[in-house]
Amino acid sequence: MLRRHALSLLSAALLGICNPVAAQLQPSPPSSMTASLPLPVLAALRTAAIPEDAVSVLVLRGDKTVLAHLADRPMQPASTMKLVTTLIGLEQLGPVFRGRTELRTTGELKGDVLHGDLVLRGGADVDLSTETLTTMLRALRYQGIRTITGNLVVDRHLFNPARFDLGVPPFDESPEAYYNVAPDAVFVNKNMLQLDLRSTPRADGRAASRVRVAMQPELDGVTVESDMTLVDADCRTWDNGWKTPEAVPRPGGGIKVVLHGTFPKNCVASESINVVDRQEYVARLVPRIWRTLGGTLAGTAVEGTTPPDARLLAEHVSRALPEIIRDTNKPSDNVLARLLFLSLGALEPDPVLGSHPQAAATTAVPTLVRSDAAVRTWMRAHGIDDTGLVLDNGAGLSRTERITPIQMAALLQAGLRSNWAPEFLASIPIAGVDGTMRRRLQDSPAAGRARLKTGTLSNIVSLAGYVQDADGRQCVLVAMVNSDRVGNGRGRAVLDALVDWVARLDGAPSSTPTAP
User: pLDDT tens digits for 263-275?
Assistant: First the structure.
């Protein structure tokens, strides 16, 4: 289960070994893209009972092909697709790009009364939180505003549609989990409720008879309860007994969040869940903050758009894009990747749609169509054939996304030549050191020297990035395994064997097999 989700520039030595003029990859005929896999990889495949044709691999050293096995075949990449989104996001939006949240109004201030609506205008600000909203609303109090006679208008229309979460079936059995959240332009606390769960003895020493739960942030009319059963179990695996929680409407307009399942005795745990509708979330958080600051809001929270003549009252900007892509790739954050993919499309002009299957007969082009066009335009400008490429949400949390190792490797080569190569490289997990690679390859010469983005779904494991060989030369590596046999570490062992093999290459002709 993917429930738990963790939330530097490179040294001159690392950059010095990059080949800045590596040739662009061009797709080759299928017959020329198969070569024998290394013996350690074949051994791992046999142990896992994974067929060789479930694996696609491409390893390059400069402009030379070290290994190519079914490398022109579109594969499900899982989270290695984040490399596409983050590099092209950097290239197109630039390293100083920041999301932006604004409070605006067309109302007139008389005394301490704002006669009109207060507009919360979303701009894909990944850092929008209770704390930042409090700071923005406090700025209104500093301007002398105490009473707002109108409504709180929530404007999510940076993206089209404004709500990607509506009418979409859950990706898997954990719709409440953070990694499953569909972002929008007004993304307060990423719509998560932070829970503290405790079954420890009470202050008077009596054993706990139930799980005690506390919730942050506090939302007007929202309570949390637990019917979880206490059991004898290991605290480290407390979430094995977790069941999908639910938000139950209560008389009078309240919401009761109910937790289900089992929980170990004498344990403490924390969890974040997405169960409250995001409009309800904002509607119950902002007025509460405003009241704590001594303000009054006469109206209610409604969804709408910002009037063209609305003036700015307060604003917040997110961290710069290089920090965001580091937080995207290191822990493999699906939500941040999806928000960046949408931002990439939101700032693009209308593409020439032609017969695009998603194109609607309307002047309002869906943001995902724009994002798709932005990626393909960039790839073609860099000499990368996009045939067979399928984009969904840009995060790899998808059963439809496809990319070939050739395309991914060409993108990685372009990353080395990018003006923003240091920022891009610094976002990729380091083998045996950090991110999703921190516990992998610790006893391999690749440890501390390979930068690899991981990808994992129930039937997919993948790696893509950069590995130094034994002579210190930079290699581009892309490997994807699509098989129902990859679970329980079997697929991961195959990929780790490949990375270790590349890290041990010494440049001798016998150690660098080249595709026919």
Answer: 999 999 999 999 9
